[in-house]
Amino acid sequence: MAKSWMEWEKPLLELERGISELREKQKLLPPDKAAAMEAQIQQFEQTRDNYIRVKYGRLGPWERVLVARADNRPYTLDYIRNIVTDWVELHGDRRHGDDKAIIGGVGKIGNRSCVIVGHQKGRDLKERKFRNFGMAKPEGYRKAIRLFDMADRFGLPVVSFIDTPAADPNLESEQRGISEAIAAGMFKMFSLGVPTVAVVIGEGGSGGAIGIGASSRVLMLENAIYSVIPPEGCAAILWRDAAAGDKAAAALRLTAQSALELGLIDEIVPEAFGGAHRGPKETAENVEKAILGRFDELDRMSPDEIREDRYRKYRNMGVQIEAPIGGRSG
Amino acid sequence: MSNKPDAFLRCEGCKKVLFSKEFVKNLRVCPNCGHHYRLSADERIEITFDEGSFVELDADMKSEDPLQFPEYAEKLARGFASTGRNDSVVRGMAKLGGFPVSAAVADFRFMGGSMGSVAGEKITRTLETAIDERIPAVIFTATGGARMQEGLLSLMQMAKTSAACRKAYDAGVPYICVFTDPTMAGVLASYASLADVILAEPKALVGFAGARVAAQASGGQKLPDNFQTSEFAYEHGMIDAVVQRKDVRATLINLVTHFTGGKHG
Ligand SMILES: [Zn+2]
């Protein structure tokens, strides 16, 4: 079991560094020598592309867990930077405080003003602490609820970016009612008469994710994961072995491909060649296109139809057998 | 608690030796220390609803093991063997002081009362029946949370049951939830917390994450002695009342009477 995505990224990053060094050198050469070097560089690039194609073309569930959690993967604010214009961030739940692990605000995607909420992770140690590792407390969900309400009253569609290991389970969270806050997030989302679209961009960590993700349409990036429990936690409970995360990742069927097969998400959004971290801008453009496509689809419905469509969607999730023999619903 | 008719038993709470007959008559609450023992769904139904009024619905609904998850089929079989039921939630129509209600009761002995597709569907139907019949919904929880053996399907039951709660809320149908030991995680973070009125039995475990995870996440902070209990939830305004088992039925009848007696609806 790979411990880190660096196990296969490291040789690739070294190759990429070598190629860019050669490109720099090439610029300083006279034209004839530069042309001679071109063939050599292209060969290296082909090697790189083949490596990416082979490795990223068949990532297993556990490897996808590692990619989804990679510390150079684009986060919510990176998507906002790349596809949102006229962004105004809004803060606070008007009850307790402002959660830095869930951000929210208004901005335009395409030419469309919308309310945007999302989990935010930090990149370096300091920022990670500031963002509480993307683990939201009750006030994060309550801020989102405040913005959902605004969206509904002003007729703005809602976009949720999902990227959290879990909601924060600490003492403060319990004191302020983290369970109620998550439940209330879904409860509010089911009342909205505007289009709501969720995009799982990294980790869809159970209740912490669904608390802002009970949307009309749910999209997942190619290498994102969505799970009822972290694979290590599942392995610890089932086999008393947190190191068996790879086995649990396979059993939990937590990849975008599995979620689509199970009919629990609507679309897989392709990442840039070699993963979102290799092409944040291109990946963000794919996300933008997918979101706008879903707005187009949902715009054709009245508020009541949007609510009914959303209710039906979740109402039909579940697989169970009804009669002792034959007969199946779900 | 085993079902064999021993004349005596030793209380898990205070270690005192109790007469079995007296213990059962006392609704499986220790007369000495007040320890509330877990009840099976049938025991709960018997002591809560009007005598003989409960009519079970969807009893044959079963999990299909949709992910072919390791050892899940065996666990389902064990759950069936220990409860005689097909899953953790029993639902049906019942009466409380003569008032019809749509009811659901969880049985912790079936895979820790966990919520997969079957439990999610039965809770959703319980709320939908309440809406269709315009009667209150009454749900007793006893659960470790979402059932990991159904993966993302289980997580989506949180959304599905919350959607049904929203429908009941918009329809003006009263929904009362009674937390019994334990009421945790994915169930607490969905339909359980969305009731109009929440009651809890004394000292039930009520919380978001397991104690060890919560302690770890809290760093060096000392957790209060009553952390993740009914009393802790009450102290922080998360539930309406902690109610002794002997008073649950009367409290429910009072609530149902008030909520169905509105003249301005
Ligand atoms: Zn006792």
CATH architecture of the largest domain in chain B: Alpha-Beta Complex
What overall form of chain A do the CA principal axes indicate? globular
The helix fraction of chain A, in percent, is 40-55%
Classified by CATH, the class of the largest domain in chain A is Alpha Beta
How many discrete domains of chain A?
Answer: 2
Structural class of chain A: alpha/beta
Mean pLDDT of chain B: 95
Bound molecules: zinc ion
Main pleated-sheet profile of chain B:
8 strands, mixed
Which stretches of chain B are poorly predicted, pLDDT < 50 over at least 5 residues? none
Structural class, from secondary structure content of chain B?
A: alpha/beta
The succession of helices and strands of chain A, N to C, reads HHHHEEEHHEHHEHEEHHHEHHEE
Question: What's the total number of strands of chain A?
Answer: 10
Structure summary:
The complex is a heterodimer of chains A (330) and B (265). Chain A is of the alpha/beta class.
